[in-house]
Specification:
Elements lengths: L1 E5 L3 H12 L7 E6 L6 H11 L2 E3 L2 H5 L5 E4 L3 H11 L4 E4 L8 H13 L4 E2 L8 H9 L3 E11 H4 L8 E7 H7 L5 H9 L7 E7 L5 E9 L2 E9 L1 E2 L2 E5 H14 L7
Helix pairs in contact: 1-10, 8-9
Protein name: L-aspartate dehydrogenase
Function: Specifically catalyzes the NAD or NADP-dependent dehydrogenation of L-aspartate to iminoaspartate.
Family: Belongs to the L-aspartate dehydrogenase family.
């Protein structure tokens, strides 16, 4: 399976190291990177030599390559700019799911993907349990979904607090609006479940922890479940969850296999 990357930050480097350098998946290869910024070209040239791939500053040339899937490894702005173009030609795995909080844009991408028989792929990122949420949703029997996100206080507040402090309690739609850089988990959970206007969110600033801790609770006709994940940051990049990078790696692995679990 041939993969292209849009942008190449911490997660892009991680994928290149694991897939092209360590070759942990013999049937998956990253063949190209797209970045139109002039300042990025020397960096891309070095990546091309190191990881045996091509690089482009032109989206049309990039998309003319034979690739099975394009992975967005950039930012929300890159999703808004490139996703409509990519989905006319390739399947697209989106990391910066914050772009999809715009419901009109999300609907537009779904329409483009359907028209061109392409797939828009959203990784689970820093959480788990999405398979359970989606299974419960199938019959319309998913009644309540709650996300409790607990982060180090310094990541959420400018002032110092001595004890854990609830800084938000409400619906995902409002949480996403107020904390756009801290609540990607709420977006993907809402897309998998009952929507941003129904998913409950609580955000807690805790000075006693050094990890991001996400607790997901769901209730419905199936019964109920509770899942908690305490995320380590990626080595060398404290802003990115290691589990997010691993979830993308796992998705690419499953896409290149004949047996799919889950």
């Amino acid at each position: 399976m041939k993969v292209g990357l849009i942008g190449c930050g911490a997660i892009g480097h991680f994928l290149l190291e694991k897939i092209n350098q360590e070759k942990i998946f013999p049937n998956v290869e990253i063949v190209s990177v797209l970045d139109e910024r002039e300042k990025s070209q020397p960096k891309l040239a070095k990546l091309a030599d190191t990881y045996d791939l091509s690089f482009f500053s032109d989206a049309d040339r990039f998309l003319s390559l034979e690739m099975d899937v394009v992975v967005e490894c950039a930012n929300v702005e890159a999703v808004r700019h490139y996703a409509p173009i990519v989905l006319t030609k390739k399947d697209l795995l989106i990391i910066s799911v914050g772009a999809l909080v715009d419901r009109a844009f999300y609907t537009e991408l779904e329409s483009i993907a359907k028209e061109h028989n392409r797939k828009m792929i959203l990784p689970s990122g820093a959480i788990g349990g999405l398979d359970l949420i989606q299974a419960a949703k199938v019959s319309g029997g998913l009644q309540e979904v709650t996300l409790i996100t607990r982060k180090p206080a310094k990541a959420l507040l400018s002032e110092t607090v001595e004890k854990e402090t609830i800084i938000f309690k409400g619906k995902a739609s409002e949480a996403i609006s107020k904390f756009p850089k801290n609540i990607n988990v709420a977006i993907i959970l809402s897309l998998a479940g009952i929507g941003v206007n129904e998913t409950n969110v609580q955000i807690v600033a805790d000075p006693q922890i050094d990890k991001n801790i996400h607790t997901i609770k769901a209730r419905g006709d199936f019964g109920e479940f509770e899942l908690q994940i305490a995320n380590h940051a990626m080595p060398g990049n404290p802003k990115t969850s290691y589990l997010t990078a691993l979830s993308i790696l796992s998705l690419l692995k499953s896409m290149g296999e004949q047996t799919i679990i889950g």
